[in-house]
Structure formats: C-alpha cells, structure tokens
Amino acid sequence: MDRRAAESHFMSPASQPTAAGRFGAYGGRYVPETLVAPLDELAAAYEAARRDPAFQDEFRSLLENYAGRPTPLTYAARLSEELGGARLYLKREDLLHTGAHKINNCLGQALLARRMGKRRIIAETGAGQHGVATATVCALFGFECVVYMGEADMARQALNVARMRLLGAEVRGVAAGSRTLKDAINEAMRDWVTNCETTHYLLGSVLGAHPYPLIVRDFHAVIGEEARRQYLAAARRLPEMLIACVGGGSNAIGLFTAFLGDREVKMVGVEAGGRGLRLGEHAARFQGGSPGVLQGTFTYVLQDEWGQIAGTHSVSAGLDYPSIGPEHAALHDAGRVEYVSAGDTAALEACRRLARTEGIIPALESAHAVAEACRRAPALPRTAGVIVNISGRGDKDMEILQRELRL
Amino acid sequence: MESSLSRFDAIFARARAERRGALIPYLTAGDPTPAASLGAAQALAAAGADIVELGIPFSDPLADGPVIQRASERALAQGMTLEGVLAMAAQLRRAAPALGILLFGYFNPILRYGLPRFAEAAARAGADGVLVTDLIPEEAQEYCAALAARGLDPVFLAAPTSPDARLERIAAAGRGFLYAVSRTGVTGARRQVPESARQLVARLRRHTALPLALGFGIASPEQVREAAGFADGVVVGTAMVERMHAASLERGPEAAAPAAAALLAELRAGLSFAAPRG
Question: Structural domains in chain B?
C-alpha cells in the first residue's frame, strides 16, 4: 500500500457523519453523562491519529505483518458454475490472524488506547471473534484485558472462550437478560462508566455512541479498498454487487465504504432471519424493527410497543443482536444498500455448500452472506461479478455445525 | 426565563428555609408489584420524602448496578409499562399533593411513546420533572421543548468527569435542580461519600444557582448527613430498592411500604430533620 492509498482509507469521503456523529438522522450519543468526557477524549485522540503519518504507518504495518493483509479475493469457480449465474468472488477475511475481520479494528483501537495512555482494555463479544481479536492485541501490546460475554454465547462458542483465556484475557460471563451480545455490551458499558479514567472500551462493531461507529468503520475500510483494487485488477471493471452479513455491521461497512461512490455497484446487507419473522425469533432489524435508542445510538431497534428491547434469535451468535449500526440505518433509508435476511437453515446449508464446492468453511455469520449470494446468483447474467465478504472462518462453529448438520 | 415557580423550586426553597437538605428516595415503579410500589411511594411521601423518583423500568438499564437492574426485571415481569408508571404517578399525586415527583428512566420507552405525547401525559399525571439517564443536553432539544411546553422540568446529570464547559451547558439546560453523580460508575450502595462528590458540587456552584442533589452510592444516615452538608438534596436509590425487596421477599409485597418508610425515617433521623410535614 502506498501512502495515498493508506490515507484514502482514513479519509474516505463516502459518508462522513456530522460533528455530533449523525449519519443522516441516525447515530449521536445517548449515554450517561459520565461517559461524555471519555468519548470526547477518544474522538480527539482519533482525530489526531488519523492525521498522524506515524500512526498510519504503524497501523498499516501491523495489518500487513501481524494480521496478514492484504487478504485474497478468491474466485469461487465451482460454486459459481454450480449456481449457473453470476461469478462469485470471496473476500477472504477468514484468512486473517484470529480468523475474522475483527482484528483490523482491534489493532487500530489498541494503537489509540496506547496513545491515550490507557492500559486496561475491556470488550464485549458475541460469537467470540471480537473477544479473541481483543485478547490477541492486548497480548501483543501488553494490556490488561477483560472480555464480557453472555453466558448463552459462552456455551455455544466455548472454543473461543478457551482461546481468550489462553491469550491471557479474563472472560466475564454475563447472566443478565438474554445472556447474549446485547447483555455483554450493557455490562461492558457498566465497567467503562466505572473505570473510564484508566480503561479503554474496545467496542467491536460500528455501534455505540459517537465516535465508535466512525472509528470502527474507518479501521475496517481497508477490506473494501483491497477488494475494489483486486476486483478491478482481475476483471478490469467494477463488480455488479457486494454481499455481506450484518450483525452490528462492521464487516459490511468495511466492504461497502470504498464502493459507496460507485453508483452502479449494488450492495446487499444480510441480517439474521433466525427461525422466522416473529418478534423474538430473528435479528432482522429492518424487517421487524423501528427507530429507537439502544446502547448509545439512535438506529433501527427490535422493540415491543412499549420500547422494551426485544429478544432475538440466530444460529449465529455474531448476528444475534437487536440493533444495527447507525450508518446502516442511514444507508437503508437512503436506499443505497438493500437489506434482506437469511434464516438459520439457509445459513447452515450455505455453510455446507461453500465447504464442499470451494473447500472453505465460513463462519456461520458469513454463511448468511453466502446464502444470499446462492439465492441471487442464478438470476444474474454470467458476466456479472459479485463480491461476497467471508468475514470469518467457521472453526469456532464446529460444535454447532456438528449438531445441526449431523456430521 | 422562568415563567413560574415549579414545585421543585418551592421544595428546595422550603428545605433551605428549614436549613436542611431535601430527601429524595428512588424506587422502581412496579417493584415488587405495581400496587405495592404505589403503596411504598405513598408511604415515603407520608414519612417526609421531599421528592420521590419513580423509576420507569427498562429492559437494558446500562447505568444501573445489579440491585436496580433486578428491580427493573421484576417490574417488567409484573407487566409494568410507561403508561403504568404514569398512572401510578397520577395516583401518587392525588395522595400527596405537595410531593415532588420525578420520573426517572431511559430514553427508548419515552421516545417510543412519543415525546409530546409523553410530556402531555406526564404533566396530566402530575409529575414535576423527568430525568433520562442516557440523554445528555446535546441530544435533548426536542425533549426539552416537549417538556417545557407542558411545564415539566428536565433534570440532567452532572458527573465528576464533566469538564467545566459541560457543567455550564448542563446547568443551562436543566430546570428544577441538577443531579450530581457522586462518582464514576453505575448505581449501587457504597460505604463513603467520595471526595469527587464534594468537588463536583463545588464546581457546579460556580455555574448555577439551581439546587444540587447528590446521588449514586448513598445508602446510610451517616452518608446522607455528610452529603447534605454540601448538597441541597440527597438521593437514596439502591438502598431503598434493596430494603423494599428484602421485606417483600420475607413478608410479601405489602411489607415493602412500611420497610420503605422505616428506611426513610432512619435517613431522616441521621439528618435530625424537623417533624414530618403533611
């Protein structure tokens, strides 16, 4: 990467939020007063860092030499052939160190934490991928690390719990509420509001109060920049379509951002359809949700008629969350990105299909994007190119896959 | 521009005239049951509470410690809704005409209900003001306008981490009184009143003439006495919820009201208050 390319992913003009952190009507800061000062401190540190060539050089070097960037863009020949339509390309974030895109943001935020002189890091995790990536960078930087994880998620992603512990992190189980990602975030915010003077909250998605959705987006923008360059080099034109799964939405925003200015490129975000579209059975915020405030930001939220946050379900812990990043809400309302959902069964089937046709086992989260690609490809012309973000690998999901697919 | 004196203004003026701090207990509406929490609020008023904070239960109370989290869960399990809290406020108002009533909660249930609709209903119920834990002045323009249109006071939090420029902004946005958070952290009983609380109140005084209530972590008569030495009012939340819950577990929901009144009496004794007012 040359300097200009590196700078462009920090200064992407595509959709800059307002100074108050608004993407259109969405975003902002809905937090207890105690957290305003640390959020301001973080925003100031990030503003300084994004202009600091030394910071950018160090971030780029870590991405290349530690995380393993750039990741390949793999043409999925057998799957495309089998589907008989568009040519599918896989952006291989599954090949990154720790097994998912999450490491991009963790490296960036670890550098910010060091800049702010904070040596204690807390994080939330759903599937455990962000927790593992956080534990990893804390080991690398010599930070103390506490990861909050819902007890239901600890049970279904036990392997990642062990990985975090091996890396030296303390994993604190959260027994409140649905015992999943939402509850882990509540608990991490309670820790932060208590210890904000010494602690950096390494939030793992494009969620939460400003400036988090902006910072996390920028640290993942490298995904789309690489994919755009790689696709242009391979096909000599832009792809017709991008497809990514959307929990909080960090891998999707990471892929989409570099293409937002390319009007001809269609973008699809895939939410978790779970077991069906009744409230509580899914995590499809754009189908069953409405604008509201949860965990620091104004965005689409699954809620009941009284504004209580609804339960969610997905076979994939990383998508099992009742709200979505505010920039996605703005992209949805603007019609720039189409949001659809794929259910548990479709995701599991897509996981098996990608494994058998391409020799790639995607994370269950990413399998939702694969499912949507399989649904759409046959109807697209053979000349069309579709980039599917394989945001993570499926090793962590083997127990669930063993059970659900009777392996 | 103050159009008229609000009930909060009158309450703090009276407390000041009586050379004492205002006592402000919190309870979660609907815990242990809707009827028992109304009974407890009425008992608190009768026992001499100046203002009662009625907590609106929320599924994701991220500024609260475990005691109030569980109270919120119990209240929701009892079917408590924002409309239920407003109905409870109306009944409390009929029983205690002079009591200050502050609705206390998180933004989403209020936003979902609709800001103007909420303000109208809260005013009709006889509430005096509203505190939304996850709403800072920067995000509160529409909310403040809706409250002002119905004569309700928006009460904001000030924190030890807030720099002076923010304190000025909070003071400018708040009406009735300001709520000083004694320490960084979530709600929950602690042993001492931290030095940060005294410093915050002193800093706030430079920016406002509004009365200052101190809360978060205050649980004992000794702490109430200490806090009232430098703040105009003292909030006791977790200790109240805990006492009511323990009594309810032991002797049934009807025991929550006498337990709440007994704790208030202890806290008042710590202050050697004047005789209870009617």
Answer: 17-268 (3.20.20.70)
